[in-house]
Amino acid sequence: MSDNPAESEKMSVSEPKAKSKVKKRIHTLDELRGLAVFCMIFYHAFYSMGVFFNFKFGTDLTNFFMPAEPYFAALFIFISGISSNLTHSNLERGCKLFFISYALTIVTFFVVGPGNMIRFGILHMLSVSMIAYGLLTKVNSLIPMWIGAAVNIILFVITFNITSGSIGIPFLFSYRLPEDWYNSGVFYMFGLPDKNFVSSDYFPLMPWFFLFFAGGFIGRLAANKKFPKFTYKKHIPFLAFLGRHALIIYLAHQPVIFGICYLIQLITNSPAPQA
User: How do 173-176 and 166-169 pair as beta strands?
Assistant: First the structure.
Protein backbone atom coordinates (compact mmCIF):
# COMPACT_ATOMS: atom_id res chain seq x y z
CA MET A 1 0.00 0.00 0.00
CA SER A 2 1.42 3.39 -1.01
CA ASP A 3 1.67 6.22 1.53
CA ASN A 4 0.84 8.73 -1.23
CA PRO A 5 -2.91 9.59 -0.99
CA ALA A 6 -3.09 10.58 -4.67
CA GLU A 7 -1.48 7.33 -5.74
CA SER A 8 -3.76 5.30 -3.46
CA GLU A 9 -6.82 7.03 -4.89
CA LYS A 10 -5.61 6.30 -8.44
CA MET A 11 -5.17 2.62 -7.58
CA SER A 12 -8.62 2.37 -6.03
CA VAL A 13 -10.22 3.93 -9.11
CA SER A 14 -8.40 1.73 -11.60
CA GLU A 15 -8.92 -1.52 -9.67
CA PRO A 16 -12.63 -2.00 -10.61
CA LYS A 17 -11.78 -1.38 -14.25
CA ALA A 18 -9.19 -4.15 -14.16
CA LYS A 19 -11.75 -6.50 -12.68
CA SER A 20 -14.29 -5.60 -15.37
CA LYS A 21 -11.91 -6.76 -18.08
CA VAL A 22 -11.74 -10.28 -16.68
CA LYS A 23 -13.55 -12.65 -19.05
CA LYS A 24 -15.96 -15.14 -17.55
CA ARG A 25 -15.27 -18.56 -19.02
CA ILE A 26 -18.30 -20.39 -20.40
CA HIS A 27 -17.57 -23.80 -18.91
CA THR A 28 -20.56 -25.47 -20.56
CA LEU A 29 -18.99 -24.79 -23.96
CA ASP A 30 -15.82 -26.54 -22.78
CA GLU A 31 -17.90 -29.47 -21.52
CA LEU A 32 -19.91 -29.84 -24.74
CA ARG A 33 -16.74 -29.57 -26.81
CA GLY A 34 -15.16 -32.16 -24.54
CA LEU A 35 -18.13 -34.47 -25.03
CA ALA A 36 -17.78 -34.15 -28.80
CA VAL A 37 -14.04 -34.89 -28.61
CA PHE A 38 -14.70 -37.88 -26.34
CA CYS A 39 -17.18 -39.32 -28.86
CA MET A 40 -14.85 -38.66 -31.79
CA ILE A 41 -11.97 -40.43 -30.07
CA PHE A 42 -14.02 -43.59 -29.57
CA TYR A 43 -15.42 -43.47 -33.10
CA HIS A 44 -11.94 -43.08 -34.59
CA ALA A 45 -10.72 -45.93 -32.40
CA PHE A 46 -13.44 -48.25 -33.74
CA TYR A 47 -12.81 -47.01 -37.30
CA SER A 48 -9.06 -47.64 -37.08
CA MET A 49 -9.59 -51.09 -35.57
CA GLY A 50 -11.98 -52.07 -38.34
CA VAL A 51 -10.54 -50.37 -41.42
CA PHE A 52 -6.78 -50.53 -40.80
CA PHE A 53 -6.40 -53.56 -38.53
CA ASN A 54 -9.26 -55.81 -39.70
CA PHE A 55 -10.64 -56.33 -36.18
CA LYS A 56 -14.21 -57.50 -36.63
CA PHE A 57 -15.45 -55.94 -33.40
CA GLY A 58 -14.03 -52.62 -34.61
CA THR A 59 -16.00 -52.89 -37.84
CA ASP A 60 -19.17 -53.84 -35.97
CA LEU A 61 -18.83 -50.92 -33.55
CA THR A 62 -18.05 -48.49 -36.38
CA ASN A 63 -21.19 -49.54 -38.25
CA PHE A 64 -23.23 -49.24 -35.05
CA PHE A 65 -22.04 -45.73 -34.15
CA MET A 66 -21.74 -44.38 -37.70
CA PRO A 67 -25.26 -42.82 -37.72
CA ALA A 68 -24.35 -40.78 -34.62
CA GLU A 69 -21.01 -39.53 -35.94
CA PRO A 70 -22.39 -36.46 -37.83
CA TYR A 71 -24.18 -35.28 -34.68
CA PHE A 72 -21.19 -35.03 -32.34
CA ALA A 73 -19.09 -33.64 -35.20
CA ALA A 74 -21.79 -31.02 -35.78
CA LEU A 75 -21.73 -30.15 -32.07
CA PHE A 76 -17.97 -29.65 -32.20
CA ILE A 77 -18.17 -27.45 -35.32
CA PHE A 78 -21.06 -25.36 -34.00
CA ILE A 79 -19.21 -24.69 -30.72
CA SER A 80 -16.08 -23.79 -32.68
CA GLY A 81 -18.15 -21.18 -34.46
CA ILE A 82 -19.43 -19.79 -31.15
CA SER A 83 -15.87 -19.69 -29.80
CA SER A 84 -14.72 -17.64 -32.79
CA ASN A 85 -16.20 -14.65 -30.94
CA LEU A 86 -14.00 -15.30 -27.92
CA THR A 87 -10.57 -15.25 -29.57
CA HIS A 88 -8.29 -12.30 -30.25
CA SER A 89 -7.66 -13.25 -33.90
CA ASN A 90 -9.50 -15.78 -36.05
CA LEU A 91 -7.06 -15.11 -38.89
CA GLU A 92 -4.06 -16.07 -36.76
CA ARG A 93 -5.83 -19.07 -35.26
CA GLY A 94 -7.09 -20.22 -38.66
CA CYS A 95 -3.69 -19.92 -40.35
CA LYS A 96 -2.00 -21.94 -37.61
CA LEU A 97 -4.66 -24.63 -37.84
CA PHE A 98 -4.37 -24.62 -41.65
CA PHE A 99 -0.69 -25.58 -41.49
CA ILE A 100 -1.37 -28.15 -38.76
CA SER A 101 -4.14 -29.75 -40.82
CA TYR A 102 -1.96 -30.14 -43.91
CA ALA A 103 0.92 -31.42 -41.80
CA LEU A 104 -1.58 -34.07 -40.69
CA THR A 105 -2.32 -34.81 -44.35
CA ILE A 106 1.38 -35.41 -45.01
CA VAL A 107 1.75 -37.63 -41.93
CA THR A 108 -1.26 -39.77 -42.88
CA PHE A 109 0.09 -40.09 -46.43
CA PHE A 110 3.20 -41.84 -45.10
CA VAL A 111 1.52 -43.74 -42.27
CA VAL A 112 -1.59 -45.19 -43.94
CA GLY A 113 -0.87 -44.51 -47.61
CA PRO A 114 -2.57 -42.32 -50.24
CA GLY A 115 -5.63 -44.55 -50.27
CA ASN A 116 -6.48 -43.78 -46.64
CA MET A 117 -4.85 -40.40 -46.01
CA ILE A 118 -6.83 -37.42 -44.70
CA ARG A 119 -7.25 -35.07 -47.66
CA PHE A 120 -9.75 -32.63 -46.23
CA GLY A 121 -10.87 -33.45 -42.71
CA ILE A 122 -12.49 -31.53 -39.88
CA LEU A 123 -9.32 -29.56 -39.06
CA HIS A 124 -8.94 -28.46 -42.69
CA MET A 125 -12.55 -27.29 -42.78
CA LEU A 126 -12.29 -25.48 -39.45
CA SER A 127 -9.10 -23.69 -40.46
CA VAL A 128 -10.63 -22.33 -43.68
CA SER A 129 -13.82 -21.38 -41.82
CA MET A 130 -11.84 -19.47 -39.18
CA ILE A 131 -9.88 -17.59 -41.83
CA ALA A 132 -13.09 -16.73 -43.71
CA TYR A 133 -14.79 -15.65 -40.48
CA GLY A 134 -11.86 -13.38 -39.66
CA LEU A 135 -11.90 -11.80 -43.13
CA LEU A 136 -15.68 -11.28 -43.05
CA THR A 137 -15.93 -9.90 -39.52
CA LYS A 138 -16.92 -6.38 -40.63
CA VAL A 139 -19.44 -7.70 -43.14
CA ASN A 140 -20.98 -10.07 -40.60
CA SER A 141 -21.32 -7.24 -38.07
CA LEU A 142 -23.81 -5.56 -40.42
CA ILE A 143 -26.11 -8.62 -40.36
CA PRO A 144 -28.53 -9.04 -37.42
CA MET A 145 -27.57 -12.03 -35.29
CA TRP A 146 -30.76 -14.09 -35.63
CA ILE A 147 -31.03 -13.47 -39.38
CA GLY A 148 -27.41 -14.52 -39.92
CA ALA A 149 -27.85 -17.64 -37.79
CA ALA A 150 -31.14 -18.62 -39.47
CA VAL A 151 -29.83 -18.15 -43.02
CA ASN A 152 -26.75 -20.25 -42.32
CA ILE A 153 -28.80 -23.02 -40.69
CA ILE A 154 -31.05 -23.10 -43.77
CA LEU A 155 -28.02 -23.25 -46.08
CA PHE A 156 -26.58 -26.04 -43.92
CA VAL A 157 -29.77 -28.08 -44.30
CA ILE A 158 -30.02 -27.40 -48.04
CA THR A 159 -26.44 -28.48 -48.74
CA PHE A 160 -26.27 -31.35 -46.24
CA ASN A 161 -26.48 -34.02 -48.98
CA ILE A 162 -24.33 -32.21 -51.52
CA THR A 163 -21.63 -34.89 -51.40
CA SER A 164 -24.26 -37.39 -52.55
CA GLY A 165 -25.10 -35.26 -55.57
CA SER A 166 -28.14 -33.26 -54.48
CA ILE A 167 -29.28 -30.22 -52.53
CA GLY A 168 -32.65 -29.46 -50.98
CA ILE A 169 -34.80 -29.52 -47.86
CA PRO A 170 -36.10 -32.93 -46.74
CA PHE A 171 -39.80 -33.49 -47.53
CA LEU A 172 -39.99 -30.16 -49.41
CA PHE A 173 -37.75 -30.25 -52.47
CA SER A 174 -34.62 -31.86 -53.87
CA TYR A 175 -32.47 -30.85 -56.82
CA ARG A 176 -29.95 -33.14 -58.47
CA LEU A 177 -26.69 -31.35 -59.29
CA PRO A 178 -24.95 -31.88 -62.68
CA GLU A 179 -22.52 -34.82 -62.63
CA ASP A 180 -19.90 -32.70 -64.37
CA TRP A 181 -19.53 -30.69 -61.18
CA TYR A 182 -18.19 -33.82 -59.50
CA ASN A 183 -15.78 -34.88 -62.23
CA SER A 184 -13.17 -32.14 -61.97
CA GLY A 185 -11.32 -33.82 -59.11
CA VAL A 186 -10.39 -30.46 -57.53
CA PHE A 187 -13.61 -29.28 -55.88
CA TYR A 188 -13.79 -31.97 -53.21
CA MET A 189 -13.14 -29.35 -50.52
CA PHE A 190 -16.45 -27.72 -51.45
CA GLY A 191 -18.41 -30.96 -51.18
CA LEU A 192 -18.08 -32.04 -54.82
CA PRO A 193 -15.86 -35.17 -54.71
CA ASP A 194 -15.33 -37.35 -57.76
CA LYS A 195 -16.00 -41.08 -57.77
CA ASN A 196 -12.38 -41.93 -56.94
CA PHE A 197 -12.06 -39.51 -54.02
CA VAL A 198 -11.09 -41.10 -50.69
CA SER A 199 -10.37 -39.43 -47.36
CA SER A 200 -10.34 -41.14 -43.97
CA ASP A 201 -11.76 -37.96 -42.46
CA TYR A 202 -13.92 -35.84 -44.77
CA PHE A 203 -15.65 -32.60 -43.81
CA PRO A 204 -16.11 -30.40 -46.89
CA LEU A 205 -16.91 -26.70 -46.63
CA MET A 206 -20.46 -27.41 -47.73
CA PRO A 207 -22.42 -28.01 -45.59
CA TRP A 208 -20.16 -27.62 -42.54
CA PHE A 209 -18.97 -24.09 -43.29
CA PHE A 210 -22.52 -22.84 -42.81
CA LEU A 211 -22.88 -24.57 -39.44
CA PHE A 212 -19.66 -22.92 -38.26
CA PHE A 213 -20.96 -19.50 -39.33
CA ALA A 214 -24.32 -20.15 -37.65
CA GLY A 215 -22.38 -20.75 -34.44
CA GLY A 216 -20.42 -17.58 -35.12
CA PHE A 217 -23.58 -15.49 -35.17
CA ILE A 218 -24.96 -17.13 -32.00
CA GLY A 219 -21.55 -16.55 -30.43
CA ARG A 220 -22.29 -12.83 -30.25
CA LEU A 221 -24.30 -13.65 -27.14
CA ALA A 222 -21.19 -15.23 -25.62
CA ALA A 223 -19.07 -12.22 -26.51
CA ASN A 224 -21.60 -9.95 -24.80
CA LYS A 225 -21.82 -12.26 -21.74
CA LYS A 226 -25.49 -12.98 -22.42
CA PHE A 227 -25.39 -16.77 -22.27
CA PRO A 228 -27.60 -18.37 -19.56
CA LYS A 229 -26.07 -18.15 -16.08
CA PHE A 230 -25.72 -21.91 -15.67
CA THR A 231 -23.32 -22.07 -18.65
CA TYR A 232 -20.70 -20.14 -16.68
CA LYS A 233 -20.59 -22.81 -13.96
CA LYS A 234 -18.55 -26.02 -13.95
CA HIS A 235 -20.55 -29.24 -14.14
CA ILE A 236 -18.30 -32.05 -15.43
CA PRO A 237 -14.57 -31.21 -14.91
CA PHE A 238 -13.36 -34.18 -16.98
CA LEU A 239 -15.27 -33.06 -20.08
CA ALA A 240 -14.25 -29.45 -19.47
CA PHE A 241 -10.60 -30.55 -19.44
CA LEU A 242 -11.04 -32.37 -22.76
CA GLY A 243 -12.73 -29.32 -24.23
CA ARG A 244 -10.00 -26.91 -23.15
CA HIS A 245 -7.31 -29.11 -24.73
CA ALA A 246 -9.33 -30.31 -27.72
CA LEU A 247 -6.71 -29.69 -30.43
CA ILE A 248 -3.84 -31.37 -28.59
CA ILE A 249 -6.02 -34.36 -27.71
CA TYR A 250 -7.35 -34.61 -31.26
CA LEU A 251 -3.81 -34.66 -32.71
CA ALA A 252 -2.49 -37.09 -30.10
CA HIS A 253 -5.32 -39.60 -29.93
CA GLN A 254 -4.76 -41.27 -33.30
CA PRO A 255 -1.09 -42.25 -32.67
CA VAL A 256 -2.18 -43.64 -29.28
CA ILE A 257 -4.97 -45.62 -30.94
CA PHE A 258 -2.58 -47.03 -33.54
CA GLY A 259 -0.10 -47.97 -30.83
CA ILE A 260 -2.77 -49.86 -28.89
CA CYS A 261 -3.95 -51.58 -32.06
CA TYR A 262 -0.43 -52.67 -32.93
CA LEU A 263 -0.07 -54.09 -29.42
CA ILE A 264 -3.35 -56.00 -29.77
CA GLN A 265 -2.17 -57.24 -33.16
CA LEU A 266 1.06 -58.58 -31.70
CA ILE A 267 -0.73 -60.28 -28.80
CA THR A 268 -3.43 -61.87 -30.99
CA ASN A 269 -1.13 -62.51 -33.97
CA SER A 270 -3.59 -60.76 -36.28
CA PRO A 271 -2.84 -59.82 -39.94
CA ALA A 272 -0.83 -56.67 -40.61
CA PRO A 273 -2.82 -53.40 -40.96
CA GLN A 274 -3.93 -52.23 -44.38
CA ALA A 275 -1.90 -49.49 -46.08
Answer: antiparallel
